[in-house]
Amino acid sequence: MRQDQAAPGSKSQSVNLSNAHPTVADILGGKGGEVFSITPTETLGRAVEELRDRRIGALVVTDGAGKLAGILSERDIVRKLAETPGQTLPQQVGDVMTRKVVTCAPDDPLLSVLKRMTAGRFRHMPVVEGEGEELIGVVTIGDVIHHRLTQLEHEALQLKQLIVG
């Protein structure tokens, strides 16, 4: 019998970590690139309604041409409420928004995005692409953490399969 004469050998199993270095594009691929925005001339009252209705924590502020002008977060609104109680909602978004916006690109590694968000103490980061810095999406710290947890679960399952066989 031929099988009896086969040389003993070992079989190698490898863990497929196909996406060991995930990028922002990996998140956008799963969640899409829909961006909820508002203009600087809208009122904070309108912004609060958008945040509530869409169940989100920040709006990207764009000018008339759709260019990134700032970002308005729940935290920005709360600060303004504390400064001007009872007079906040009629104010314009442009007077309250964060103008100096930290952005990322689709090919940025998620780890570097997470580090920038943590260091800057913000939870939303617009994603821009190309020299014209076209706005193509927004990632949140929750998106990044969820992606990493999913990746860790997948890796743990693969390792378990290696052990069990």
Give a written overview of the molecule.
Keywords: CBS domain, Oxidoreductase. It comes from Candidatus Rhodobacter oscarellae. Pfam families: CBS. The protein has helices at 2-5, 24-31, 44-54, 74-83, 110-120, 141-164, and strands at residues 37-38, 58-62, 68-73, 124-129, 134-140. With 165 residues, it is an alpha+beta fold. The chain has a single domain (33-164), classed as CBS-domain (Roll), CATH 3.10.580.10. Strands 1-2-3 form a three-stranded mixed sheet. A two-stranded antiparallel sheet has the order 4-5. The chain starts with a helix and ends with a helix. Residues 10-17 have low confidence and may be disordered.
Salient structural properties:
165 residues; 6 helices; 16% strand; 3-stranded mixed beta sheet; CBS-domain; alpha+beta; two-stranded antiparallel sheet
H/E topology pattern: HHEHEEHHEEH
Question: How many extended strands?
Answer: 5
Uncertain segments of ≥5 residues (pLDDT<50)?
A: 10-17
- SSE class: alpha+beta
Give the integer mean of the pLDDT values.
Answer: 87
With strands numbered from the N-terminus, the spatial order across the biggest sheet is 1-2-3
Q: Describe the biggest sheet?
A: 3 strands, mixed
Fraction of residues in β-strands: 15-25%
Number of domains: 1
Rg to the nearest angstrom? Answer: 23 Å
- Predict the CATH topology: CBS-domain
Measure the end-to-end span: 27 Å
Number of helices: 6
CATH superfamily: CBS-domain
GO molecular function, one term: IMP dehydrogenase activity
Enzyme class: oxidoreductase
Organism: Candidatus Rhodobacter oscarellae
EC number: 1.1.1.205
